Automatic annotation (TrEMBL):
Name listed for the protein in its UniProt record: 3-methyl-2-oxobutanoate dehydrogenase (2-methylpropanoyl-transferring)
UniProt keyword annotation of Oxidoreductase present: yes
EC number: 1.2.4.4
Main function: E1 component of the 2-oxoglutarate dehydrogenase (OGDH) complex which catalyzes the decarboxylation of 2-oxoglutarate, the first step in the conversion of 2-oxoglutarate to succinyl-CoA and CO(2).
Organism: Flavobacterium gawalongense
Amino acid sequence: MIKEKTNTPLTFEDFKTEVLSDYKIATISRECSLLGRKEVLTGKAKFGIFGDGKEVPQLAMAKAFKNGDFRSGYYRDQTFMMAIGQLTIQEFFAGLYGHTDIEQEPMSAGRQMGGHFATHSLNDDGTWKDLTKQKNSSADISPTAAQMPRLLGLAQASKIYRQVSGITNAANFSVDGNEIAWGTIGNASTSEGLFFETINAAGVLQVPLVMSVWDDEYGISVHARHQTTKESISEILKGYQRESNTNGFEILKVKGWDYADLVATYEKAANIAREKHIPVLIHVNELTQPQGHSSSGSHERYKDSNRLAWEKDFDCLRQMKLWMIAINVASPEEIEAIDLQAKKDVFEAKKAAWNAFIEPIVEEQKELVSLLQKIAETSKNKERILKLITDLNSIKSPLKKEILVTARKVLRLVMNETGKEELSLWITSYTNKTQQKFSSNLFSETDLNVFSVEKVLPEYSENAKEDTDGRMILRDNFDAIFTKHPETLIFGEDAGNIGDVNQGLEGMQEKYGELRVADVGIREATIIGQGIGMALRGLRPIAEIQYLDYLLYAIQIMSDDLATLRYRTVGKQKAPLIIRTRGHRLEGIWHSGSPMGMIINAVRGIHVLVPRNMTQAAGFYNSLLECDEPALVIECLNGYRLKEKMPLNYGEFKTPIGVIETLKEGTDITLVSYGSTLRLVQQAAKELLEVGIDCEIIDLQSLLPFDVNQDVVKSIAKTNRLLVIDEDVPGGASAYILQQIIEQQDAYNYLDSKPQTLTAKAHRPAYGTDGDYFSKPSSEDIFEKVYGMMNEVNPLKYPSLY
């Protein structure tokens, strides 16, 4: 582990000790890569992707990395993690084997493949650790360049902590904003739009970010000439070079095998970013990848003999050895001794990791075999059971799957015998115990989750009238939020100077400043990334996406990063980001879509809230700021000018999450909807009452979570009929809603008619008022759909309309 630097001058002996320590870490890391690949090829591990060839620049980065700093990298940074003391050899192999014990495999407890790293930001109860006292790594993800947007937010947090006073518990997250966010990426991945979007945003914002590009000239098998103009990312980014009186980057270039120059370069970069909050890009070129991209192939297939010979000569470890010998830091014999010891240490730690992984499973194997042998003695299917026992016993390194498969197959053979009950109990217990290792922590399991928030009703004056624009209720509630929660900030396209396009933030920037209420560029992916990174560092950001349709630009970051964060760290990191947007009915193909089915199926791990009015929306924001989970709030675009009552208790009233609201009680049919469409449902229900049909109207309020008290089925038990009205495409959110009601709530027990849906057409909504009318459900559509369902029940009372 590399120690924090001090200002005390190094003696040559101290220098020698430090260099040899660095070399030892790099050599251990290389041995881990070499032995790790063998473990994959022998079948002990599923897949391997390693950091060989990148060891020396990662040592240099680790030297400049201080307590409180954050890394947002990709899956080749094992040397760096070892150098900052956050990854042991045994933990490296535990990750390779997919060990589900968080103590053995602290990166993700086997939920991610090896090479994906994270540190623990939270205590066991979900509260924050003091992140300034430790070196931090945000949890890695595999999608190419998807670590970039989060990096922006991690860096921006330092700017906020440096320039905004009064933030709650700021000392746990920052020391005067001196922390750097360190990013890493492979050269080929800089071709992704997420890279360029983040680089541009960082240059605009001027945040303390140091971006390392590991350049080994290839992206898997594809050479840089097919990836990057001029075959050089630093060349094509020269326009971003910061000049006098301009913003931008400091761009540095260094050879990846030159230890001394790397150390100097990273020290220079750290000083610039840490002190001046100027972003830096370091193009680390002339790197190698000795084993190719991953364990699924060999680089000899696509590199010619000249390239392979060059890589052997300029391997960073070989060059570091030559340099150490040249300056008398170590003799060849001393280096060889370090190499041999590294091989031994890695082999022993690998063996320990394997034993820790396999021995508990072998014990479970033995436990089941013992039970099955007892059951077999009295079974009429004894021979078949004994065969299954023999097959299971023959597996020297069993998987949990193989154990459970055997148990379930035997259960079929004894379903009418005395052994069934004991085996059934064993299977249930084993499944419940094991399933949690793979399925826990999709949402918060702490006392800070959304269900811990108590409902608080809006309070009104005695003579309150519905004469206040909905947008003013949002505005005044945001005003209360920013006063009550100094760690809260909001940012988005047009969110600042004009107070958002619908004036829900009118006057807020003038009152709270440009850092807390901020305009940003047109770049939805990095708007979400800003929010994720800042939330990872204890702030409470609200990231605004101007319209629901624009969410598609950011859905990958929401799905792959934010939604999976708590799950992939087994509850050791959290980012309680609130995403604010508006949608549903407007005009035309691109601004009136309601792709709710796509959203709710892509973002499990994020709550999706669909308020029908602005008081309800404001209550959701108040609730979310009391808990520790991310959420998407979709305001009704046509509701900002509609009149509502003005509450008295801004910032205090709270809309419960996962709880439905019954807007009208009825006896004949249950109508379920959400958002803007509810106004049409209410209008249709009035008209249906005129012809003797009494509808019960339910506002879902939130799609994720869905009706946690199972109140919809209670309504259906009374009415015996169900219609779901939704402006998503057929089979979109309506299919999800039906699945929840019919399957999860067992509503089929109470239905006297086929449950039905009324949705928008399969195409995007056409332009104009007529386009909306013929594309999405109207109140006439709802009336006729309900009437038709009642006609089926009683054609004499409700004669056919057509």
